[in-house]
Amino acid sequence: MSAQPNRRTAITGIGVVAPNGLHAETYWKSVKEGLSVLDRITREGCGHLPLRVAGEVRGFDASALIEETFLVQTDRFSHFAMAAASAALKDAGLSDAAADSPYSVGVVTAAGSGGGEFGQRELQKLWGQGSRFVGPYQSIAWFYAASTGQISIRSGFKGPCGVVASDEAGGLDAVAHAARTVGRGTDVVVAGAAEAPLAPYSMVCQLGYPELSTVEDPARAYRPFTSAACGFVPAEGGAVLVVEDLDRARRRDADVRATVAGHAATFTGASRWDRSREGLAHAIRGALDEAGCAPEEIDVVFADAMGVPEADRAEALALADALGPHGTRVPVTAPKTGIGRSYCGAPLLDVAAAVMAMEEGRIPPTPNVFDICHDIDLVTSTARPAELSTALVLSRGLMGSNAALVLRRDPGPAAR
Amino acid sequence: MSSEVTLEELAALMKKAAGVTVDPHDLEARVDTPFAEFGLDSLGLLGIVGELENRHARALPTDAEKCKTPRDFLDLVNSTLTAGA
Question: Which residues does the UniProt record annotate as the domain Ketosynthase family 3 (KS3) (chain A) (predicted)?
Fold first, then answer.
């Protein structure tokens, strides 16, 4: 964003595919009501695994939303991304953006696990029948980059494309990368992340994470910031945003849903949760600096909420380190306790919730969480009405990435 | 298995391998139209070649996956399959 500081970036479209809603509006309704949809995993071939509870996206009919030529060559994670991208572009009034100027629209996505279900199917053919039975689309479908490529091909976009592979927090880095791309002169960037890590192969890959919750009761499986914290619950889904040059958005009279004000990222090592305190605090300070934002201006924090006692403690302390006394006063929320963590998709879903929270003046609660054992003002049980102008979204990954993103409500052209 | 690949079989393979729906009669009428205009990309054609190689248990020439039109493709594939059948 430093390339052209006078070129500010707006979020003009939001598309969501989440366990608690297949559209942005239904997602937000579930989030603000504090609905928890964590449930026993029903996916075929997963029943014998020790991971029992997750946030599954149910009722998603890919064939109703995506052309068959794209379906056969893509994994479920790209189906989510393509569906969310279409919804975001429609929300932004840019469904036909490529028709006018294809080079003015780019795409950036983040991914943490790629197309596990597709990859497993083809690898089973490899070992079951032989290499001649592996389909050619294996060469593109399971890579992290698949969703970026397919979104751009499907919509006819020819602007700058990118893929961020920087752990779960990479979801926020993708939004920042999109904002920088806009700063460098591209009018519009479709930015987001969606994941589909609930297939047998993908789940086995996750079983080695000590942070994974294997608790069998959905109501008790993911309770960060409590003394009962026992790890996190994985999820499917994600969100895609339309990030656009603010002046251009105003010229075309688009609904500016929020502005991307600041971002910073740090790295403190895999599962070194004690060190994430310093890393997260540094990221928060960096994001505030870039946004030109004082700690007291932060009206709400969307927490990473790992659900591991040491990590929760580090996050609470990082807020105090970076925000000072305001760190214990500012309302904090973690709606993801009701849906699970869809890896890179999780911080994107938080960005979507943060934008809609600012629009509606309502801080959504943290489902399944009640007795807080850290010195933060966590919003629980029911949504809290509040005047919200600035939101801070935090994210960390299991591999050691930390990121912070500052979003502002658009004051409108008159207030500039 | 009969060694001649028909337009019907090609249409079914385009559907199975690449998700391209095309009526066999339409394929016959547009037999010199590039595959790309049917929505079939190079990886899709490669998948069809692989499927035919598995069905007929024999290798097809590497040029098969580079054919631009249904007629070129069927001519090459069928001349290979019928030779020494």
Answer: 6-409
Choosing from A251, A280, A310, the residue where a domain stops is: A251
Q: Which residue has the tokens 């007629």?
A: B71
CB contact under 8 Å between A68 and B19, yes or no, is yes
Note the pTM of the prediction, 2 decimals: 0.95
Does residue A273 lie within any of the structural domains?
yes
Which residues fall within 8 angstroms of residue A286, CB to CB, at 6 or more apart? A262, A263, A264, A265, A266, A404
Is B76 within 8 Å of chain A by CB? no
Q: Which residues of chain B from 2 to 41 reach within 8 Å of chain A, CB to CB?
A: 17-21, 39
Whether A159 and A283 map to the same domain: the answer is: no
**Number of domains present in the structure of chain A:** 2
Residue A238 to residue A231: CA distance in whole angstroms: 20
The CATH number that domain B7-82 falls under is: 1.10.1200.10
Burial string for A268-303 (b: 16+ CB within 10 Å, else e) reads beebbbebbbbbbbbbbbbbbebbebebebbbbbbb
Same-domain pairing of A215 and A298: no
Q: Any chain B CB within 8 A of the CB of A207? A: no
Model confidence pLDDT, tens digit, residues B6-47: 999 999 999 999 999 999 999 999 999 999 999 999 999 999
Structural domain including A281 reads 261-410
ipTM reported for the complex, 2 dp: 0.90
A76-100 pLDDT tens trace? 999 999 999 999 999 999 999 888 8
Q: What distance in Å separates residue B38's CA from the closest CA in chain A? A: 11
- Contact check, Cβ <8 Å, B18/A69: yes
Q: Is A73 on the interface with B (CB under 8 A)?
A: yes
